[in-house]
Amino acid sequence: MRLSEDKHTEFKQSFNDDVIISLVAFANTKGGMVYVGMKDDGKVCGVSLGKESLQNWLNDIKLKTEPSIIPDAEIIEIDGRTVVVLSVQEYPVKPISMRGRYYSRQMNSNHLMSAFEISNSILQTKNSSWDFYVDNQHTINDIDFDKVEYCISKMQRRGINISDAPLEFLTKKEYLLDGRLTFGGYLLFKANEDLMTTIELGFFQDAEGVIIKDSARLKTCLVDEVDGVMDFVKKHINMAIDIVPTQTENIQRWDYPLDAIREIVLNMIVHRDYRSSADSVVKIYPDRMEFYNPGYLPEDISIEDLMSNNYSSRPRNKQIADTFKDMGEIEKYGSGVRRVIDMFLNCGLPKPQWKQRSGGIVVTVWKNSIPDGQLNGQLNGQLNGQLNEYSFSTAQKKTFEYITAHEGCNAIQISKDLEVPYRTIIKHIDILLEKNLIIRQGSKKTGGYYLINKQ
Q1: What is the spatial distance between Cα 272 and Cα 274, in angstroms, rounded to a whole number?
Q2: Cα-flanking dihedrals φ and ψ of residue 377, to 5°?
Q3: Which one of 84, 92, 124, 175 counts the least CB within 10 Å of its CB?
Q4: Contact (CB, 8 A) for 63 and 98
Q5: Do 65 and 96 form a contact (C-beta atoms < 8 A)?
Q6: Closest CA to 260 of 159, 346, 181, 150
Q7: What's the mean pLDDT in 101-111?
Q8: 3-state class of 177 per DSSP?
Q9: Phi/psi of residue 345, each to 5°?
Q10: What angle do helix axes 394-405 and 411-418 make, rounded to 10 degrees?
Q11: Vertex 278 angle, CA 273 and 283, to 5°
């Protein structure tokens, strides 16, 4: 039997309060098992059970937890020694406490939950979110009814049948509960600026962010902030005019796909943790843009899950998210990241990057693929310099060029964008792998190809 402690498994030499703490942590997270009679290193020491020992353990667990938990208990033998396995599933009603203290399971250890984590757990149990709760600091007098009417008109244009006056609309949509304003209702339609919705905007002359050329600060209602951020972005990025002889209208071409930037901004505003003291930040550099937003991903969703669309969306602010969805700003929960990636790749730009940092999420986008001169130099240096004994075809160079500009891409994506048969792309990739120009990283489902010289 080979076991080790992890997020679902804990070892204890004997029964004590630490066993109960582990069971509480498992019940508050994703469930797990405590092996009583085993050392931390996995060696079996066994326990001595009297006639009523196990029943006394279960009674002790029941009395010291709130709401009470009663784990499943199994007595097993390992190497001739008795081990008791106590197991619990994730409880539907959370959080569970042990003598008034709340714990969660993180990796292979138990952590005392903060007040913030406790409140989140309560909201998740109620299938609710913070923005549905009453804001005792503000009233209906703090609302701009013009913003409410604007919201109603956008919903009506999408075919949603709303004939109510603004006050009735606020009540039916639960922005008002017994005449009291919710946090979501206040943030969406507030009349005056305040710090709760601050977004810092900066335009930098240099790539290091030392010299700032322009800045702004938005503190408006959420309904206005999307356009406010987009106006600042368009002010500081370039637009070219493509003249197409066969068309009567010229085509505007920006440094970045504006629909993708708007999607990032929407995600930033809708999913921000407005209980955090940190501000959202947008930084525009000569070669890239960065969007920082307070609030980590849920524990069971990784950055890889986010970028591969392999997750179920759970909006942090359900009332705010539903409002933007009904207004037509959000098409579908959980699909925005994938759309942003596709829009950048379709424009021949590098894949945007998501990272968790400083209590939040940072999205970085680049306005150029590798400049032609740099790319040609890299191709010549690697393909001709390192491998001058091999003659690459133009098609093989194009495959390498694509991977250079879109690291992390897969064969299906290359085949689609280059309009080359999948089997042919696989042959090109096999050659590049054989010559150690590229490497594959990640799982079969979500992995992709990267340049060797950038590892």
Answers
A1: 6
A2: -65, -40
A3: 92
A4: no
A5: yes
A6: 346
A7: 91
A8: strand
A9: -65, -40
A10: 120
A11: 100
Q: Which helix (H) or strand (E) holds 403?
A: helix 394-405
Distance CA 332, CA 46 (A): 53
Report the length, in residues, of the chain.
455
Kindly state the tokens that stand for 134. Answer: 């009453």
Exposure of 216 by Cβ count < 10 A (0-12 exposed, 13-18 middle, 19+ buried)?
A: middle
Tokens of 288: 């890239």
* Neighbour tally for 325: CB within 10 Å: 17
Which amino acid does the sequence have at 166? Answer: P
Residue 358's CB is within 10 A of a number of other CB atoms, namely: 10
Question: What is each CA distance from 27 to 37, 89, 92, in whole angstroms?
Answer: 21, 6, 9
Residue with tokens 């029941």: 62
User: CA-to-CA distance for 15 and 82, rounded, in angstroms?
Assistant: 13
- Condensed to tens digits (0 to 9), the pLDDT of residues 160-196 reads 888 889 999 999 999 998 899 999 999 999 999 999 9
Residue 304 burial by Cβ neighbours in a 10 Å radius (0-12, 13-18, 19+): middle
Q: What six digits make up the tokens of 196?
A: 């709760």
H or E element in which residue 432 lies: helix 422-434
User: For residue 71, which amino acid is it?
Assistant: P
Chain segment 297-312, per-residue pLDDT in tens = 876 677 877 777 666 6
Closest CA to 189 of 130, 123, 131, 275: 131
Q: Are 63 and 69 in contact (CB under 8 A)?
A: no
Calculate ∠ Cα 455-264-188, nearest 5°.
Answer: 150
User: How far is Cα 363 from Cα 356, in angstroms, rounded to an integer?
Assistant: 9
Work out the pLDDT band at 73, boundaries 50, 70, 90: very high
pLDDT digits 0-9 by tens, 135-158: 888 999 999 999 999 999 999 988
- Mean pLDDT throughout 56-72? 91
pLDDT of residue 145: 95
